[in-house]
Every structure is written in C-alpha cells, then in structure tokens.
C-alpha cells in the first residue's frame, strides 16, 4: 500500500464495511464527549458501516467500555469492543499451556481476559508464575511494579498490554502503561513483548471477529493507531482530535503515516480528495504546498482547512521520500 495519502470519491463510511475505532482522543476525551463523534458514528452506522472499538486500554472490561460509550450517545455492545487486555491474553496462548500461572499487574479487564484465556492468575512472584502480564490501572503502585520485577528477573516471560507512554485524560496527558512498564524494564533490563498497538494483532482479531472485507482503522495517535494500520496493511484515517497533530502528520516517517486525514469523525461522511503534483506544488482542493530548501511553503500567508493539511503532508512526504531535507523548524504549527 502506498506510503502517501489515498483519495476516495465516495465517503469512507460507504467505501468500507468495518471501522476499527480508537477510543481516547477519537470517540471521547477522558470521560468527556468529543464534538461530532456521536452523530458522525451514528450516521456511519446508518449507512451500513459496522464499528469495532479497539483500544490500548487494558484496565477495563468490554462491558464497562460499552457502557461509557453508550452514555455518550454512542450505543455499543460489549462484543463491539476489543481491548489490549484481550490481545495480551491471546499473546500468552502462543507460548503457555492452559492452566499456566500468570502474574497479572493491571486492572480488572486484564485479570478477566487472562482467566478467560485459560490461565491461573496469581498475585506474587513467590507463586512461580511462568509469565507476567502488565497493563495500565490507575491504582498500580510501587509494590505491584516490584512484584513484576521480581518475577521477570526470575525468568518469567514479560508481556505488556501496550507501551503507550502517555494517556489522554480530561485534565491533560498522564503517564501511560509504557511509562510503568519502563520501571520494570529499568529494574530488570528485560524488554517485554507487546500486544497492543502498534502491533496489528488487535486489528487482526477484530477483523476476524466480524469477517470484514474492507476494514478502516481510525485513530488519533500516529505512533500506535496509524503505525498499527501500516503494520497490518490496513488503510488508516487520522483524526485531529487527540494526541497527534497535523504538524506531526506532516513530519511522520513512512511507517507512521495515515492514508487519510480529517479534522474529526465527520471525515467518515465525505469524500477525500487525493493531493496531486502540479507546477512544483502539491495541491488539494484550493490549497497547495511545497518544500523549498528544507522549509514547507504554503500558497498563502496561512494554511487553513483540512485540504491545506493534506497538501502539506503530500509535499513533505514526497520531499522526504526523495531524500530532500525537511527541517522540523521549517514546518509551522498547522491549523485545520
């Protein structure tokens, strides 16, 4: 699949049969709704697009996630939720026999997923676990991380639900599971296997569950959601309502680039014009951009609108792929 932006003359909701939707930064922000999310997903469903909510959060049960979404006017059933806890438990089955002891460092969602996968959950390194499964939970403390370190240092297989360094909340960004996993890595020198995005494992599981033929990944983070889309060979839509900005997309390496970009989930409901090269400029709609001497130049004093972001991405990526320098200082803070 091309490393550049794709185009679609019809709305993405009509072009795909399943949307793999991230949660934090896409469907909601912490416990707050995101503008246009509920009504856009409702309209996409009305057009026949099925939804699976795929999250790196491993602390909660699918039932809890579905309940939160439903409370935000996004009606959701538990089987429409795929969590990193479920993916972590699936990874454990690739090496451990049923009934193996697993030290779970995380929330209820991870405990349930590991048990449902057929393993015995233990709470101490003294229980001789064959593996440590670590996922985020806000109540985790030093003693939990210490137990994980003791077990990993003793030879237990180390598996993390995900390695997100930050977690978006209503108050800002807080340390994520990757930061907590980093404490165990620092203590043991052992790097864990990771089940969550950017591994495409959860996407693969969700696509198989729904027998989808034309899936679309939707996310806000280039380093997890969209990197996972690239890794799994799925087209990915980057919405600018969460962690990664338009400027981040312009500067993205090939493995992190989205295939489509939109301001918010309304991007599901309209066409996506594909940028094209003309006269040294990359154009999209009424906007254009080019890279000259390592600086991104715009066809006006200000880049505005999502077509401008698309043109900027096309110009920057083409220059970078051709070996031309693009200095981060030469890329403005782009509005959309």
TrEMBL record:
Identify a single GO molecular function assigned to this protein. Answer: hydrolase activity
The lineage is: Bacteria, Bacillati, Actinomycetota, Actinomycetes, Micrococcales
List the InterPro entries hit by this protein, alphabetically: GNAT-like, HAD-like_sf, HAD-SF_hydro_IIA, HAD_sf
Provide the GCN5-related N-acetyltransferase-like domain boundaries. 284-326
Q: Which SUPFAM superfamilies match?
A: HAD-like
Which UniProt keywords are present, listed alphabetically?
Hydrolase
- Tell me which domain of life the UniProt entry assigns to the organism this sequence originates from: Bacteria
Query: Which Gene3D superfamilies does the record cross-reference, listed alphabetically?
Result: HAD superfamily/HAD-like
- Protein name, as recorded: HAD superfamily hydrolase (TIGR01450 family)
């Amino acid at each position: 699949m091309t490393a550049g932006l794709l185009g679609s003359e019809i709305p993405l909701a009509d072009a795909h049969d399943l949307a793999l939707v991230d949660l934090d930064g896409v469907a909601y922000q912490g416990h707050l709704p995101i503008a246009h999310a509920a009504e856009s997903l409702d309209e996409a469903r009305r057009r026949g697009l099925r939804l699976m909510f795929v999250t790196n959060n491993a602390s909660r049960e699918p039932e809890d996630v579905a309940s939160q979404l439903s409370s935000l006017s996004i009606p959701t059933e538990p089987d429409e939720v795929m969590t990193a806890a479920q993916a972590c438990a699936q990874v454990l089955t690739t090496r451990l026999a049923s009934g193996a002891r697993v030290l779970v460092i995380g929330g209820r969602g991870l405990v349930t997923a590991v048990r449902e996968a057929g393993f015995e959950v233990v709470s101490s390194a003294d229980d001789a676990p064959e593996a440590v499964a670590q996922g985020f939970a806000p109540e985790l403390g030093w003693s939990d991380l210490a137990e994980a370190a003791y077990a990993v240092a003793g030879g237990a297989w180390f598996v993390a639900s995900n390695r997100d360094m930050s977690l978006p909340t209503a108050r800002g960004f807080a340390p994520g599971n990757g930061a907590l996993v980093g404490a165990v890595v620092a203590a043991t020198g052992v790097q864990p296997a990771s089940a969550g995005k950017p591994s495409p494992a959860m996407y693969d599981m969700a696509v198989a569950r729904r027998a989808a033929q034309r899936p679309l990944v939707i996310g806000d983070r280039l380093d997890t959601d969209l990197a996972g889309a690239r890794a799994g060979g799925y087209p990915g839509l980057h919405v600018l309502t969460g962690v990664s900005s338009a400027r981040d997309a312009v500067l993205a390496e090939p493995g992190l680039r989205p295939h489509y970009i939109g301001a918010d989930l309304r991007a599901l409901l309209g066409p996506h014009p594909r940028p094209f090269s003309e006269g040294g400029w990359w154009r999209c709609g009424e906007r254009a951009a080019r890279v000259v001497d390592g600086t991104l130049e715009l066809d006006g004093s200000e880049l505005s609108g999502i077509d401008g972001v698309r043109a900027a991405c096309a110009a920057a990526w083409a220059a970078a792929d051709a070996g031309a320098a693009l200095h981060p200082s030469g890329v403005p803070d782009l509005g959309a």
